[in-house]
């Protein structure tokens, strides 16, 4: 493996290998007739490993199971995934010694396809790869986003479950097209809205906003709000973990519904996800959100809470 130019490590879940089967990422590994390739038919998860520890792994394994269930896919048990992740992360760290403790991070993806056409078994593997520098930078610099209509109303998930709106499926071509559209407009990212004017999510992230107010007694009240989880969005594991930590630290919590104006009026807005973590939003459709000083202060506070999450 040391002769590879790629930094990526692949571990296939294979009944003959109890800890997973390491595979060469420079060699073809999938059949051309795999339904993941021909139809985007499958599910995935992306997690962050820090210093060899894969964060929030239980929440990700639970969401993988829910996504698989939405697609009627039978997948291996959580212990099989955990062992394969351990194999992959250990191999990645021995292949790619981190230049400093802050850079000892890796993206751990769990991928399931419906398998080869005509076969009864899914294809399952773990991919461990470096964190993109751009994502890391955006945690510091913040991002400019545009609002884009996703074309579904906020009841579509409930009315039409076959749209798989709350599942993390391999069919991310629409999400990637939205990001390219934003980049062409000079923006970094996207917040999707529903056709009935609700704030939904980013193509790869959850939306959060914060408001800071004084209550009648003069005390400062900090409130963290995210769109309703049943509006056809993917329930974020980062949002869930951060909300629990923020509650314990005295923040008030809220779950939409949110309109675009609520974002513009907020003291701070973030896109949050497992790999990029909290990316503060500087502008939405060209309008500045809050003030740089308050954005920075609230981001630092939430980063500290998030850093304590296992
Ligand atoms: N929403 C979508 C559509 C996503 O793809 C992701 C993550 O990739 C998220 C939200 C954030 O989820 P998590 O915090 O679990 O990474």
TrEMBL record:
Its EC number is 4.1.3.38. GO terms for cellular component: cytosol. GO terms for biological process: carboxylic acid biosynthetic process. One of its GO terms (molecular function) is 4-amino-4-deoxychorismate lyase activity. The keyword Ligase does not apply. Keywords: Lyase. InterPro entries: Aminotrans_IV, Aminotransferase-like, BCAT-like_C, BCAT-like_N, Class-IV_PLP-Dep_Aminotrnsfr. PANTHER family: AMINO-ACID AMINOTRANSFERASE, AMINODEOXYCHORISMATE LYASE. NCBIfam families: PRK07849.1-1, PRK07849.1-2. This is Aminodeoxychorismate lyase. It comes from Arthrobacter sp. K5.
């Amino acid at each position: 493996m040391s002769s590879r130019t790629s930094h990526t490590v692949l571990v296939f879940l294979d009944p003959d290998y109890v800890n997973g089967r390491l595979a060469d990422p420079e060699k073809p590994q999938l059949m051309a007739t795999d339904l993941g390739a021909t139809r985007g038919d499958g599910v995935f998860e992306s997690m962050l490993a820090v210093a060899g520890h894969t964060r929030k792994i239980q929440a990700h394994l639970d969401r993988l199971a829910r996504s698989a269930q939405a697609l009627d896919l039978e997948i291996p048990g959580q212990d099989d995934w955990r062992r394969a992740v351990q194999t992959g992360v250990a191999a990645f760290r021995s292949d790619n010694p981190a230049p400093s403790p802050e850079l000892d991070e890796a993206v751990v993806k769990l991928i399931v396809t419906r398998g080869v056409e005509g076969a009864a078994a899914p294809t399952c593997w773990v991919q461990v790869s470096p964190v993109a520098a751009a994502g890391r930078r955006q945690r510091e610099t913040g991002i400019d986003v545009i609002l884009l209509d996703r074309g579904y109303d906020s009841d579509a998930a409930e009315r039409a479950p076959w749209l798989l709106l709350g599942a993390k499926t391999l069919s991310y071509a629409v999400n990637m097209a939205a990001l390219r559209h934003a980049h062409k407009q000079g923006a970094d990212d996207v917040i999707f809205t529903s056709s009935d004017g609700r704030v939904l999510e980013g193509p790869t992230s959850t939306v959060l906003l914060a408001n800071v107010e004084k209550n009648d007694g003069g005390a400062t009240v900090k409130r963290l709000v995210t769109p309703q989880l049943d509006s056809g969005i993917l329930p974020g594991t980062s949002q869930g973990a951060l909300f629990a930590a923020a509650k314990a630290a005295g923040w008030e919590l809220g779950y939409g519904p949110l309109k675009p104006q609520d974002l513009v009026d907020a003291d701070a807005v973030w896109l949050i996800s497992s790999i990029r973590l909290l990316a503060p939003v500087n502008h939405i459709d060209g309008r500045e959100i809050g003030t740089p000083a308050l954005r920075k202060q609230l981001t630092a506070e939430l980063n500290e809470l998030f850093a304590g999450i296992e």
